[in-house]
Amino acid sequence: IRVNGIDVRMVDGLWISNVKVHNCRSGGLVASWKSENIFVENSIFYANFFDGVALYDSENISISNFICSENGAAGLSLDNDLSDVIFNDGFVENNGDVGIFARHASTLNFNNLLVKGNQSHGVFLSHSTPNSETGVNRLIFNNCCFKDNNGCGFWMASPSTESKDNCLVGCTFSNNTQDPVCQD
Questions:
Q1: CA 10 to CA 121: how far, in whole Å?
Q2: Whether 155 contacts 128, CB under 8 Å
């Protein structure tokens, strides 16, 4: 059963602005099934049972000036052949698991995010199975702050053979319970 606040499937061209999505039985905003050209601004996704924002099998998405907080699982969950997504000026904080989870995704940009106080790692990047081309490639974290997370600030749990060309630029790390940056 899917009980998302906003559930977007096979959509080309959508603008979401000034919404508060909370206390949903699943996710706050979920975009999947080849959705594209989605723009989200000035919105809050909080206290949802699973993820604040989940993006799967979609492309060309922009999310700016947002908050994902106090969700039961991840603040942002990004997976299943996701590409060309930009996150600008956001807070990803106090979520029940990781702040940001990504697997099987490429060309994602994170700019000016505060990833704070999540119950596991600030960021957890992975792949499904070895040699499956399901890693994370071309992810750029620019001017992000990872602090007070209950784990690593940033964990690259995928070897360079599975995940290439990722970088952290001008990021800060403070008071995470494990190392600032961890890698398997």
A1: 31
A2: no
- Candidates 99, 83, 104, 108; CA nearest to 146 is 99
pLDDT at residue 1 in the model: 53
What would the two tokens of residue 100 be?
């940001």
The set of residues, in sequence order, having a beta carbon less than 8 Å from that of 102 and lying 6+ positions away, is: 76, 78, 79, 82, 108, 123, 124, 125, 126, 136, 139
Using alpha carbons, list the distances in angstroms from residue 100 to 10, 56, 120, 145, 154.
24, 14, 10, 13, 9
**Using 50, 70 and 90 to split pLDDT, how confident is the model at 90?**
very high
Strand partners, 43: 66
Residues in the chain: 184
CA 157-6-22 angle, 5° bins: 80
CA 15, CA 140: separation in Å to the nearest integer? 24
Q: Which two tokens stand for residue 181?
A: 């940056």
Over residues 111-146, the pLDDT tens digits come to 999 999 999 999 999 998 777 788 999 999 999 999
Amino acid identity for residue 61 in this structure? I
Contacts of 49 (CB under 8 A, 6+ apart): 24, 25, 26, 27, 71, 72, 73
Question: Which sign does the torsion angle of CA 44, 50, 53, 130 carry?
Answer: positive
